Amino acid sequence: MIGSLTLTIPPPWNHRHLRPTPPSIKCESGGVPLTKQGHRFFSSLAATADVNDPATANRLIKKFVASSPKSIALNALSHLLSPRNSHPQLSALAFPLYTKISETSWYNWNPKVVAELIALLAKQGRYDESEALISQAVSKLKFRERDLVQFFCNWIESCSKHNSKEGFNDAYLYLSELTCNSSSVYIKRRGYKSMVNSLCEMDRPNEAENLVDEMRKNGLKPTLFEFRFISYGYGKLGLFEDMERMVCEMEIEGFQVDTICSNMVLSSYGAYNAFSKMVPWLQKMKTLQIPFSIRTYNSVLNSCPELMSLVQGLDSVPLSLGELVKILNEDEALLVQELVKSSSVLDEAMEWNGTEGKLDLHGMHLGSAYLIMLQWIEEMKCRFKVEECVIPAQITIVCGSGKHSSVRGESPVKTLMRKMIVKMKSPMKIDRKNIGCFIAKGQVVKNWLIPDGEGE
């Protein structure tokens, strides 16, 4: 029998806060960014309170919640609920923290937070607490079918992210029953989409494909999302024939292969060093006029061990596209050549006018930033050699200051750019007003790239 829980329950969950967002520290594992206040709180917990010492932990939690604004308290809870939180030894304190937050005057019940907490509790084997929360949520939402299906979807997706098999199976049963019994097409579509997605997250794409067959029998045509989930689910497991089969089925159903789908395919090939399949796929993208994106670059170049070794080593990094292609092995050289044949990513990343010539490297992983930088240098040389070329007053490289890096304030891209700039003897310097940028006068950059007489 499901137990009762005498809580009021969780708060509104929004990554956009109404008040100014406090400084945050990116957790090392890439999970939810943590505020400085939250970081101090967790450090205090780790130093003075053992998870088996509930009295001390509860005292610190009570003090933190009482003295913290709503956004700070919720950020700390969000961090503990994340599957990738950088304080896993403190994850058992998520429930006590949640309980204390639920008692505040500003607190509003939020099913997404409850779903995430249930998934974490199930992973920890704390079934009494999780079942009580499930019972409470179902009771609150049972007359609001759309809200109920959203809760079940959040729950099953959270379980899949935590890789909690037992919690996943429970959530699947609830969601499957609601989906099958509902007369609403919206409920059925939402339920099937979430189940397919979550099965693929749990490395069960064959079951997800069976679910798509069930959708068809129930009169629902699969959407692009289901095909993407399943093809990528197979791809992550290295089952390329099944992945390619699903892509073909997607096209037969009338859906076009797009950049998102292509990036999933490339990422799958790259994870297994299937370079011989990556080059033809890049060529297929060009034939079908599917634009490359920053993620295309990231997916391809992250799978190139020689190139990644070069950019991480820094000292021996080639400073031109020609040098790079010569030094790489044949497979990686072919991939680089296919990428640079298209200028679509460079065109998106750069601006060029009389005021400023700017290259924005945000969103690029190390290999992508390096290759785009080399392309940009070549592009600037070509432009400066044209007599009618507009010379920007300032040239700027935007690489960020490391706010979102694994170690706050240490941007790998910025470090790479600095090394390249020094080795190239470039006139660009760190902007004193924005340490995430390198700047120089446009005419000075032109004189550096095109010495006197070379542009004639």
Automatic annotation (TrEMBL):
Where does the Smr domain lie? 359-443
Mind telling me which SUPFAM superfamilies this protein's record contains? Answer: SMR domain-like (SSF160443)
Repeat positions for PPR: 188-222
Q: Extract the Gene3D superfamilies matched here.
A: 3.30.1370.110, Tetratricopeptide repeat domain (1.25.40.10)
**What keywords are annotated for this sequence in UniProt?**
Repeat
Highest taxon above the source species: Eukaryota
* Family the entry assigns: Belongs to the PPR family. P subfamily.
Q: What is this protein called?
A: Pentatricopeptide repeat-containing protein At2g17033
Cite the source lineage.
Eukaryota, Viridiplantae, Streptophyta, Embryophyta, Tracheophyta
